[in-house]
Amino acid sequence: MKKKKNIKILILLVSTLAWVSLLSACGNLADTEQKTEEGYNSRECPVYQVEDMDSLKLGSAEFNISNYFIRNEYQYQNHYYIDSDNNLWGYGDNTYGQLGNGQQYIPQNDYDNGFEMTPYKIAENVVHVDFGGYFMIFLTDKGELYGAGANLNGVMGIDVSGSEEYVANPAVTVVSEPVCLMQDVKYARAGIRGITALKKDGSVWWWGEIRTTSAKNIKDTVGVRYAEPEKMLEDAIYVTCGNFCAAAIKEDGTLWTWGNNTFGSCGFDSGDKDFIEKPVKVLEDVKMVWMDEVRFDSIENRLSYGMISPYECNYAYVTFAEKKDGSLVACGYEVEGEGSKSWSYMLYGDILRTPDQMNGGVEFEPVTVVYSDIFQPVAFCEKDRKPQLKFKDLKYGMPAEEVQEFLSNLEINYKIVDGISDEEKVYEIVTEDQYFRFCFDDKLKLNAFYYGAYGTRNGKIMIGMTRAEVENVFNSPFLEEFSNDNEIYSTSFYQDDSIYEIGYLDGIVYYVKESMIDESKLKNQKDENIQSNTEKTDSTQSDSIEK
Q1: Largest CB tally within 10 Å, which of 44, 274, 277, 401?
Q2: Rounded to an integer, what distance in angstroms lies between the CA atom of residue 143 and that of residue 127?
Q3: Whether pLDDT at 2 is above 90
Q4: What is the largest CA-CA distance in the chain?
């Protein structure tokens, strides 16, 4: 079996991502003064960011399930997409066999690297795909629901006979080729450990389990466990699920939820009970519901070895809904409004806050969190897809104070890094999301920009581009290049309006540093190149004479 290349990069494993998502919402509430969808919200409401406003079809009176099929899914370390001929393709991590190519990329199978970056054709006649982190599911035009990936407690149909080895090691039992999970399916969604399916007869089914590392009762961290599909409701027109809850909309417009309700994510007052095992009615006159993320298709279409998409707007433990009158509401973690609550948690984000359960006897205070188990009015706004373009007016040589003022006027949060690194003084301004760095010389004058996401401020180079695409932009090959021993990482330098240092990971751009052109350095570099070429010529001529 062919060995994959050994790649050592700073990525978050799916298990790590799952753990992090349990701690807090990844997305940020947008400024309430941002432009929002007119007619569906109020500036006085909390504003949540979404990837693509148009795809949500807000305000549309027509309900058609095909409008909510997912054809482009980017999650964690995988990218799945359905082409115009309805062929399903996938690439990225294959640690759990989730690419459905018959292989599991783990060391025991002679794979040093879990990634497959060449798109693999998984199936034909596919209309919908979803991915939760450990497994993927897809729906065919005949209503057949297939899946591939980690079996966990039985989501892929394999009996685990009461074993819980999969909890610590999801890769222990996998299905590496697509297996049919259910027939006559109209729609389905995947959470991190469970599946919700809507059959053509209107029945709703759930299987898997919900695990959380935040709970009001420290022993109550697993719920809604079914190793086989369990019928939950009838007469439904839509279903969805997040990592901690599931939901269904019935024909009469009522919204029903179940799952983890530690932070009120189900929109129901369950007191000190962490899980709602059976669906409860929580809202009326509902048109659509989302959990954790307000989206269908991902707008990201490039995967860079599992880097989290900068376009992602994830709000863990939050449930959103659009009502038939066009109003938007939300409940759950850190949702505030009339009737919101607070609770002091002893178990919060994998940290047991009781002294006898902490190594060294360190005593931790309970953590107090605000949440709402009542749906509160909210608003949506589309996340800026090209925030780097805001920096085009920054000029080399600007004092650090002016750059700080520039960012403050744009309401961009940042921090200052001031110290010594590799025996050199470093002064940088780093944006809160750490996507952008502004570098300064010893006189605190701006001399370089670093882009870890999106792309350059002139809009020419984007993270995720291939080397060929970059060199087509510059219309020339690199000036100079360095690479490590296995040639997976490489750094190339190009000259355009600035000097561009571009980091490639297996031929894909993963960072860009834009620096001011230093004419003296260029002259010295040219002189060094001339000297080097002269020495090589002299050496060649000397060897020829000796021969």
Answers
A1: 274
A2: 9
A3: no
A4: 95
